[in-house]
Amino acid sequence: MSIRFTKMHGIGNDFVIIDARSQPVDWSAELAEQIADRHFGVGCDQLITIHAGTDGAAARYRILNQDGSVAGQCGNGLRCVAAWLWRDNPALPNPLLIDGDAGRMVCERLADGRIRAAIGEPMFAPAQIPFMADEPAAHYLLELADGSIDIGAVSMGNPHCLVVVPSVDQAPVATLGALLERHPRFPDRVNVGFAEVVSRAAIRLRVFERGVGETLACGSGASAAVAILRQRDVVDATVGVDLPGGHLDISWAGPGSTLLMSGPAQFVFDGIWNHD
Ligand SMILES: N[C@H](CCC[C@H](N)C(=O)O)C(=O)O
């Protein structure tokens, strides 16, 4: 069986994009694991499929992580889907409405070629994350085998926790990230951000992604970090986020408003994946 795909990335967070409207796709964990394999498949952090849109949306997108788990949001991937749709049909409007499990997203192509995505309002209620806690808080103390750690937690349509560190370069991303990803208080697992606050308008961030491990960038992770730090009044409404793969600009005016994430989307190649 052969499947046409497009390889794309958002500042190094890479994706296989498949148009499931024009070809039959067996949307499954097995497909994601096979195509995401960097030796036996194409290789990617996430598999993203494009489906027919309804109620005015140009399309619907769905996300599977490298390990086959379903994700409700993918910020870098959403920008790539918007760029893919505009390349596929230049007559599509700007901005573009794209639906996902996290709701309706609005993507606007900016004059500088970046894409600004309105990805919804951060959700701090524990039940929405989901995170086991009695009520929302700006800080939580998480018990570990050898002590405890201060975290923030929020959903951007997918679950995120944040650890503030003095230096991202020294952060124990691989070990602590893996531990927190599967902490029992996150019943659906969690993406783990490590943030170094440079100023009220700039942070550095590394992310251990649920279902992948550390990635070069995480759009929903950058959004989650700014939301948590904004809730703590540690940063202003607009923050530059520097990740290992590149830079994103995040703006959030506060409760009751959607969060905006601006960044690039890059085509790498188009191909055909032959698999049994
Ligand atoms: N690993 C994430 C999905 C991809 C998020 C990331 N690639 C982004 O750009 O937001 C999860 O399981 O929720």
Automatic annotation (TrEMBL):
Keywords: Amino-acid biosynthesis, Cytoplasm, Isomerase, Lysine biosynthesis
Recorded catalytic activity of this chain's protein: (2S,6S)-2,6-diaminopimelate = meso-2,6-diaminopimelate
Site (Important for dimerization): F269
One GO term describing the cellular component: cytosol
Protein's recorded name: Diaminopimelate epimerase
Subunit structure: Homodimer.
Molecular function GO terms recorded: diaminopimelate epimerase activity
Source organism of this protein record: Ahniella affigens
One Pfam entry name: DAP_epimerase
Gene this chain is encoded by: dapF
GO biological process: lysine biosynthetic process via diaminopimelate
Subcellular location: Cytoplasm
Entry binding sites for substrate: N13, Q46, N65, G75, N76, N158, N191, E209, R210, G219, S220
Annotated active site: C74 (proton donor), C74, C218 (proton acceptor)
PROSITE patterns for this protein: DAP_EPIMERASE (PS01326)
InterPro entries in alphabetical order: DAP_epimerase_AS, DAP_epimerase_DapF
NCBIfam families for the chain: DapF
SUPFAM superfamilies, per the entry: Diaminopimelate epimerase-like
Pathway(s) this gene product operates in, as recorded in its UniProt entry: Amino-acid biosynthesis; L-lysine biosynthesis via DAP pathway; DL-2,6-diaminopimelate from LL-2,6-diaminopimelate: step 1/1
Function noted in UniProt: Catalyzes the stereoinversion of LL-2,6-diaminopimelate (L,L-DAP) to meso-diaminopimelate (meso-DAP), a precursor of L-lysine and an essential component of the bacterial peptidoglycan.
Enzymatic class: isomerase
Family that this chain belongs to: Belongs to the diaminopimelate epimerase family.
